[in-house]
User: Fold these one by one.
Assistant:
Number 1:
Amino acid sequence: MKNLQFITVQTKPYQVYRILLVLTVILFSSSCSDFVEVPLPNSQLTGTTVFESELTANAAMAQIYAQLRDGGILSGLPTGASVRMGLYADELQDYTNSTIALPIYNNALTADNATVASLWTSSYSQIYNANSVIQGVENSTGLPIAVKNRVSGEALFVRALVHFYLLQIYGSIPYITGTNYEINRKVTRSSADEVYTAIAKDLEIASSRLPENYSSSDRAKPNKMVAKAMLARVYLYMNKNTAAANEATTVINSPLYAWETDLNKIFLRNSKTTIWQLASATAVRNSNEGTTFIFVSGPPPVCALRTDFMNAFETGDQRKVNWTKSVTTGLNTWYHPNKYKLRTATTSSQEYSIVLRLAEQYLIRAEARAKQGDLAGAKEDLNKIRTTAGLPIITSTITSEILSEIQKQRRFEFFTEHGHRFFDLKRSGTADGVLSVSKPGWNSSDILWPIPELELNANPNLQPQNTGY
C-alpha cells in the first residue's frame, strides 16, 4: 500500500473541491482502495487523518460505506458473511468446488485459509479507517460541532458494527480504538464480555451524537435509530433483555418506519421497514446480493439454497413463495434466495443492500419479552411476523415453545442475511445439535473460526489459537 499518512484539507473552495474530487475518484474506482492508504504490516492499523471540511468528512465516511458494501463481512458478494456463513451453517450448498469455499462448506477450515484471513484483514482495515475519521474529526478546528457529532457518530457505529461481526466469527478479539501502529501491533485479545461492553459503549455514544432523522433520503447513513437498532441486538446477545426490549421498542415506535405486509416490497430501496442499508456503487446498479444469489440456469455458479432448508418451511409460508425461486433443467432443480429480485443494472437503482430492518426489532423484542416472562407481549410481536408470512398465530402459553418458535421464525425471516442463522445457533447453544446432523464435518470446536495464521505469527500477543486449530 502507498505510504500516505496524512490528508490535510484547506477551507478554500477550490481546494475543498479538489480533495473531494480525489476522494470521489478513489471511492468509485476500486473497492480495494482504502480512504487513507498507509503501510499496514500484517493487517495492523496505523495513521492519522485530519478533516477541515464537511464535504471531505462526508466523503471519508462514504468511502467506508463503500468498503463495507464491496469487501469484508457485510459485503453481499460471494466473499461476505451472507454467503460464507450461509455455507458454514445449514442454509447454502457450495457449487464452486473451490479450495477456498469448500473448506467453509465442509467445516474444514484451517488457519491459513484465504477467507479466514481476508475477513479479518478487511474488517480491521475498515475499523482503522473508522478510527481515522473519529480522530480526524475530533481534532478538526474547522467543522461545526453538529457535523463533528454526526460524522464521529457514524464512524463509532461502524467501529462497533464491524467488531460485533468479528466477535461472532472469531471469538475473543482485539478491540481497536486508535491508529497508533506501535500500540496496535502488540494488541491482545479481549474476552467476549469485554468486547460486548466496548461495542455497547460505542453504540450508546453514537446514539447520543447521531441526528434523529436521516441525513440522506435513501437511509444509507446511520441516524440515532440505526444505532439503537444495533444496540437492541447487542443487548439481546448480552442477555440484557430489558434493555434490548426498550431499545427495540424505541425503534418500532419511531414514525420513520412502517410495517409492510407485502413481502415483495420489503427489499426495495424505498421500503419503510429498512432501518439502514448500503447504497449501490452507481445510480443504476442494484444490490450485490442480487448479483450473487440469483442465477437463471443450472448448475448454480456460486451457491444455492440447501434442499433440507427448503423442505423445512412450514406449509403455507409465503416467504418460501416470495423469497425463494426455483431453476430447473427438467432433470435437476435448484433454489436461490429471491429476496432481492434484480441481478443487473436498471435505469435507476431499485434495491440497495439492507443491513438492518424492522422485522428484526420485533423478533428481538419478542425474545426479550419471553425471557422476562411477558408471554403475551412476546406472542404479539412473534405473530406479527407469522401473519405477514401467511401463517396462523401462535397460542402457546409455554415459554420454551415460544422461544423455540422465535428462533424458527428468525431462521426463515433472515436466511442469507449476514450470518444471522449461524450466530443464532451459536448464541442459543444449539449449533452442535443442529449442525452435527446437517453438516457431517461439524465439530464442536467449529463454533469459532481460527485466528489467521499470519496474524498470530506477526503478533504473538494474539495467542493462543482458538481450540481445534
Number 2:
Amino acid sequence: MHLVAELVEEQTERLAMVPKGEDTITPTRERPRITLFVDEGAEVMTAGKDALEGLESMARMGRAACIDLWWATQKPTMSGSSAGIPPQIAPQLSTRICLAVSSPAEARTVLGEDAQAMGWTADELPAPGYALVRDGKRKPNAVKTRALSPKQVVALPDRPIWHRPGVAPVVNMRKPPAPSAPPTADSTDERVLRVVVEGPARQKDIAERSGLPKGTVSKVVSRLIESGQLARLEDGTVAAR
C-alpha cells in the first residue's frame, strides 16, 4: 500500500507537468520512466485490497506520467475481489501477453472477449515456452519465450529501485536479507500503537518511527483497524480510536 501511495503522489505531480498539447511528459534523470510490476495479481488483491484504487489510477493515467503498470497472474478467471485481473484494470491494459492456458475462458479473460473468434487461441499453445502478444499491431502468431530459474533471477545484475526524494528506497528482495528473529504479534502491535497515539500517521512513517518492516506494519495496521483500535482517516493516515 505504501509503495502504491508513493507512486500515486509521483503520478499526480508528473501529470501537472505534461506540456500543453502533449500526451506525456519527457522522462529525465530526475523523473525517469517507472515500471510497476504486479506479480501474482490474484494474491495481491487478496492481501492488498487497499491498493486497488491507486493501481486503477495508474492503469488509467500512468502512461501520461511515464509510469507503466504490468499485471501478472496465474489465475485470470478468479472472480470477485480476488480476481486475477480486476475489472477496473483489465480494460486499461494496452498490451496483453498470454502463455499457454487451460481453457478458452482464460484466453478470453487475458486476450479479450473476441480472442477465440480472432484466432487468439492461447488454450492451444504448446507449453511451456510459447506466448501470444496482443497489442493492436501483431497477428496471433506465437512467440518463443525464455524461462529463468530462481537462481538465474537472483544472479541478474542489480538495478536501482525508484523512490521519491526523501523517501527510503525499497529493499531489492531478489537478494535475500540477513535472517532475523521476527517480533511477536504483541510487540509489533505495541510498537505501532506507540507511534500512532502521538498523532495520525501514514504507514511509511509508522515503519520508519517504529523500526518495523513496511510489510509488517501493513499487516499490523489492518489487524488493528479490524479490531477497532485504529481507524483510517480520509487522507490515508491512521489514528488511534
Number 3:
Amino acid sequence: MKPLQTLTFTLGVIALLAGAMWLMPDDGFEVGEMTFHMPTFPEMLGADDVEYADVSEIIAQQFEIDSLVDIEVDTIAGDTVVEVIHRADYDTLVQSVRRIEMTQLGKENLYRFFDHLKSDSLVRIMHYGDSQIEGDRITAFLRNKLQVKFGGTGVGLRPALQPYDYVFSANQINSDNWKRYPIYGKVDSTVEHSRYGVMGAFSRYAPLASDTIPFKDSIIYEAEMNVSKSDISYKRTREYENMRLFYGHTKRPVAVQLIARGDTVLSDTLLADTTYAMLECALPDSTTSVTLKFSGYDGPDVYGIELASKKGVIVDNIALRGSSGTIFTKADYQHSLKMYNDLNPKFFILQFGGNVIPYIKDKKAIERYGRWFGSQIRRINSLCPDAAILVIGPSDMSTKVKDKYITYKHLPNVVETLKQVALENNCAYWDMYEAMGGYNSMPSWVNAQPELARPDYVHFSARGARLVANMFYNALILEYNNYLEEEM
C-alpha cells in the first residue's frame, strides 16, 4: 500500500471513530445485558471529569453529642431551681450536624415521642430498613446510645428464624426444620393468607396448614430455638428481662417450654384456632440465653420473639433485604393492628430507597415509588396514630460507568422525592445522602483508610455503619436538646 493510501485509510478510520464517539449517547447503548461505550473526546485527550466528594472534613468532625451537654442545677436564683446548659463548644460543633428536616406538625409529632423518652416509661422504636441495616448494623449503635441515656436492655423484637448469617447483637440457633415465609421478594404462593406479622415475615417448623382443607392429627412436630448474648455486642443488649412470643394460626394446641439459666421457667400451651396471640414470661435475673421448645400435632406461625426490659428504650432491628419498604399495605390490616397494639411503638424509623435505585429509569418511576411510599406512611399512621415517623433516605450508591464509579443517575431525585413525601405526611426526614457527602461520596467512603464502605459501592462497612449511626444519633439528640430547652 502506497504512503498516500495508508494516510487516507488511517484518516478515514479516525474519522469513523470520531463520528462514532460523537454519536454515542453519554450512557452508551444496551445490547441485552451488555452496555457499550465509546471514549469521549476529553477522555481521549486524557481529561478526567469525574470528581469524588471530599469527605475528610465530614469524617473528622464527628463527635459524641452527649459529652458536650453538661446540665447542672443553679440554686443561686432564689428558691427557683434552674437547669443551666453549659455549651462550651456545643454551638460550634453542632453546626456540622446534618439536621433533621420537618414541618411544624412533624416537629410536634417528634416532640410527642420525646415526651415519652423524658417520662422514663417503656418506649419502643421500630427501625425498618433494607440490607443497609442488616445484621443489626446502624441499629445496634443507636440502640446502645439510647439505652445508656434513657435506660432499657435487650435486643427487642427478633424473627423466629434469623435470615442472615451474621447478627451483631445476639446469637441464634434453630432446629433444622424451621422455614421462613416473607411477604416481600419471592413470596411463597402456597401461603393462603396475608397475616405475616409486623416484621414482614413469619416462620414455621410444621408444614403450612390450609384454611380450607380439614386438618388431621397424624405427626407430632417438635422444634427448638435458642437466642443468646453475643460476646461482641453492647453490654445492655445482652441482658434479657422479659420474653414475649407472638404467634398464631396453629390448628392444634402446641406445648411450649421456656428454659433460662438452665431451668424451665415456663410450661404452657399455645392457643389453637386463633389468628393472633401472645405468650409472655418474666425471666430470671441476669438471663443472657433463652431456649424455646415446641411440640404438637401442628406448629404456629411465629411472628417474632421479644427479649427486652419492661422499662426504658426498646429498639427493634427489622431488616428486609431487597425490600423497597412497601410491605405495610400488603399485610392483613386487622392482624397487624393487633400486634402493633401489643408492641405499642412510639417511633418508627423507615430507612428505604436503596433497592429501587438500580431499576429507576425515568421521572415517572420515581413519582410512582413516591406514591407507593406515601401509602406506606399513611398505613402506619392509621395503625399507630400516636407514633412519630422519621424517614431516612438512601445513602449515596455508585454504579460503574466505563472505568469510574459514579452516583446512580436518578438517586438524587429519589432522595428528594422521599423527602417531599415524608414532609407532606408530617414525618421527619434525615438526609443520609447529604450527610455522608452527597454526589460521588461513596467512592471516598470505600477508599477511606480504614474503609468505611464495602467494595460493592452500596453498603457501609461495620466502621462506616457506626459512623453513620452516630451522625444520625447526634441529629436526633440535637432535636431532643432543643425540645428540653423549649420545655424549660
